[in-house]
């Protein structure tokens, strides 16, 4: 409600960064006053793991980007492309490093929670959609999702497909599709 009122005010210019859905509302509200708008909208930020990189280095960097604020930053990795023959080693390295860095996340004050119930429900809906359509879900530390605290260890997702919400929308949370590739051109 506050954001809707704010964006309806007759500013000289509005700069908005956030989701495409909210960006549409901001633009509609600004249009009533003919206020120019600059939109920086969320998207799909891929990471490509090269065939020749040290997997521990790749994973450590990936975890830093994906786990900062539980993946709720605009430049968080949205999905990762991994050489097909290294997918298993990527997942194992991710699990090992994640567990060393965070341990059990439900009681870890250094690991962020999903910001509010609406966003938590959205992320859980995306995860359930992926499961229902055949994805394999692997918790980064084998810990269950803490629904009371909205704490979600990174959920590594294999066997994703383009018909899943996971690959259609910006994730903006601790879900990470791991997508295999056979050559760099394909990635």
Please provide a written account of the structure.
The chain is α/β, with parallel strands linked by helices. It folds into 2 domains: 2-41, no CATH class; 46-181, Aldehyde Dehydrogenase, Chain A, domain 2, CATH 3.40.309.10. 34% of the residues lie in helices and 18% in strands. The chain has 5 helices and 7 strands, in the order αβαββαβααβββ. Strands 3-4-7-6-5 form a 5-stranded mixed sheet, with helices on both faces. Helix 3 links the parallel strand 3 (46-48) and strand 4. Helix 3 (55-67) crosses helix 4.
Overall morphology: globular
Total of helices: 5
The whole-angstrom Rg is 18 Å
CATH superfamily of the largest domain: Aldehyde Dehydrogenase, Chain A, domain 2
Distance between the termini: 41 Å
Biggest sheet details: 5 strands, mixed
CATH first level of the largest domain: Alpha Beta
**According to CATH, what is the topology of the largest domain?**
Aldehyde Dehydrogenase, Chain A, domain 2
Note the run of SSEs as H and E.
HEHEEHEHHEEE
- Binned, the helix content reads 25-40%
Assembly state here? Answer: single chain
- Per DSSP, what share of the residues sits in E-state strands of 2 or more residues? 15-25%
Count the beta strands: 7
For the record, the CATH architecture of the largest domain stands as: 3-Layer(aba) Sandwich
* Count of domains: 2
**Based on helices, strands and strand pairing, what is the structural class?**
alpha/beta
List the topology elements.
Elements: H1 2-7, E1 14-18, H2 20-31, E2 37-41, E3 46-48, H3 55-67, E4 79-83, H4 87-102, H5 117-132, E5 136-139, E6 155-158, E7 175-181
Parallel strand pairs: 1-2, 3-4, 4-7, 6-7
Antiparallel strand pairs: 5-6
């Amino acid at each position: 409600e506050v954001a809707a009122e704010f964006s309806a005010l007759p500013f000289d210019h509005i700069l908005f960064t956030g989701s495409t859905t909210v960006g549409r509302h901001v633009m509609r509200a600004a249009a009533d006053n003919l206020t120019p708008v600059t939109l920086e909208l969320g998207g799909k930020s891929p990471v490509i793991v090269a065939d020749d990189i040290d997997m521990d280095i790749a994973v450590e960097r990936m975890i830093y980007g994906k786990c900062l604020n539980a993946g709720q930053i605009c430049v968080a990795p949205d999905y990762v492309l991994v050489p097909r023959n290294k997918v298993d080693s990527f997942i194992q390295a991710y699990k090992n490093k994640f567990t060393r860095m965070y341990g059990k996340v439900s009681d870890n004050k250094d690991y962020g929670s999903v910001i509010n119930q609406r966003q938590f429900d959205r992320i859980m809906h995306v995860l359930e959609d992926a499961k229902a359509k055949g994805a394999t879900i692997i918790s980064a530390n084998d810990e269950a999702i803490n629904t009371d605290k909205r704490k979600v260890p990174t959920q590594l997702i294999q066997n994703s497909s383009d018909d899943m919400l996971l690959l259609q929308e910006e994730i903006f949370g601790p879900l990470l599709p791991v997508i295999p590739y056979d050559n760099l051109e394909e990635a």
